[in-house]
Each structure stands twice: as structure tokens, then as C-alpha cells.
Amino acid sequence: MAPKRKIDPVRELAVAAAEIARDDHAEDIVVLDLRGISPVTDYFVICTGTSDRQMRTVADDIARRGRQAGLKPWHVEGMDSAEWILLDFVDLVVHVFDAAHRKYYDLELLWGEAPRVDWRGALGRRRRRAAGKQDQPPQPPPPDTPEDETRQQDV
To answer: What is the count of structural domains for the chain?
Structure first.
């Protein structure tokens, strides 16, 4: 029997935050693993919002998910101006930028040596585990329509 992998609640929240940002239509979502690189935090989630209202929604929804997971934001900054909203969960910091501030601060360049977390892949694995399925390679799709069968008979 394979040993169970220890679940990191902060990483889980980082992946959930990325999913929430995607569901709330944020753009260019990145999760950086800063463990061993930054003495301040373990993960960054960085995304770009398209309007101040949407940016606040992303931040509110991520803060709500954190509270549900028992990880209340220690500090929230920028909700009034909605140019750069920062949610500080201590071991996770979420940055919701408008496009101009994202380009100006360029956190991905600043933390360029940090590995990126494949949050889309992590999300899929988490959903499969929740459904009780094993990680398996994707299967080819079944034939699309009965029309394919007709064409095969004509040949």
C-alpha cells in the first residue's frame, strides 16, 4: 500500500483561490511556490481583474473560502482603490491586480526562480480523488455520431 501524501491546507487554499479567480473570470492566474525562497510566505496567487467590481468579488470569494477552511485572512489591503487587492493569509498571499499594476510590479519576474504550481492539474486530481477515481491517463473520446458509422460502412 502506497503511503498517503500529507495534505498541505495552505497549498489546497492556493489551488482553491486560483479556481475561484478563474470561476470569477480573472485572467492570467499564476500560483507560485515560494517555500524555501521567501522567509515571509509559502505561496503567491497572482491574477488580473478586468474591473474594480470583479476584483472585489474575486477577493471576497477567496477570503470566504479561506474562512471556511479555517484560514482567516490576517490582513486585507486595497479593497477601496481596487488597483491591487492583497489578501494576506500569512503562508499564502493573494494578489488581485488590475492590468496596469500587474505589469508595473511584475511579481512573476521578481520571483522568477519560484516554481509555478500546476493548479489546473492539482484541481483535476483533487476532483478525481473526491469522486473516488484513481489518477488515470485521459481516454480517447468515443465516436462522435452515428454518421461516423455510416461512413465506415460505405468504405
So the answer is: 1
Say what the pTM is: 0.76
Residue 114 in any domain: the answer is yes
Domain carrying residue 44:
9-134
User: Which residues lie below 8 Å from residue 15, measured CB to CB, with a gap of 6+?
Assistant: 31, 117, 119, 122, 123, 126
**Which CATH number characterizes residue 50's domain?**
3.30.460.10
Cβ partners under 8 Å of residue 93, min gap 6? 41, 43, 44, 45, 86, 87
- The 10s digit of each residue's pLDDT in 20-55 is 999 999 999 999 999 999 999 999 999 999 999 999
| Residue in the block written with cell 510566505 | 41
Instruction: Confirm whether 151 is domain-assigned.
Output: no
